[in-house]
Hints:
Blueprint: H1 2-27, H2 34-70, H3 74-90, H4 99-116, H5 121-142, E1 148-153, E2 160-164, E3 183-188
Helix pairs in contact: 2-3, 2-5, 3-4, 4-5
InterPro entries: DUF3347 (IPR021782)
Protein name: DUF3347 domain-containing protein
Domain DUF3347: 58-145
Amino acid sequence: MKTVKRSIATITLATIMVVSVSCKDEKKGAEVTPIEKEMNDTKATSMSASEDVKAEAILSDYFNLKDALVADDNSKAKQSGLLLSKSLQSLDIANYDNKNELKDIIEDANEHAEHISESDIDHQREHFKILSKDLIDMVAVTGTKVTLYEQYCPMYDGGSAWLSTKEEVRNPYYGSQMLTCGKVQREIN
């Protein structure tokens, strides 16, 4: 009895597979149905969502670097600079508008992240100033899913900006020397 049931199940499964394959052949060259179009749109959205994740990873690494500078931690800033450099290199700019502009921004930001990974803390802060400008420009192209705050210190090198996830000012340019020097310049959504 078990053998008969297995045979029937096997024949049924084989029949379903043959019908499925033959139905696929009939669809070749046919117009795309609304459901298929929606599935293709979902794939495209998934790809851009993947790039959003990579852009958010860049921001996450940037914030870790900022926090290391706030804490006056040269060693952690070096590690964070290296991680940020790797994140910047992994961003695929093909899915964004303004590809040439974004390419220039990423290349410049990567150069500064690399310098940070090899420098003393004063030199790291010099590169962080330009890196911050690059990341602010990157966010203008890629957008962000979280609220960011562009903060500004009027005293460091004629005035310097940086990004933060918190409204509370924690100055990466002076660290513990002048921890709260600065103000929120604007909110980025």
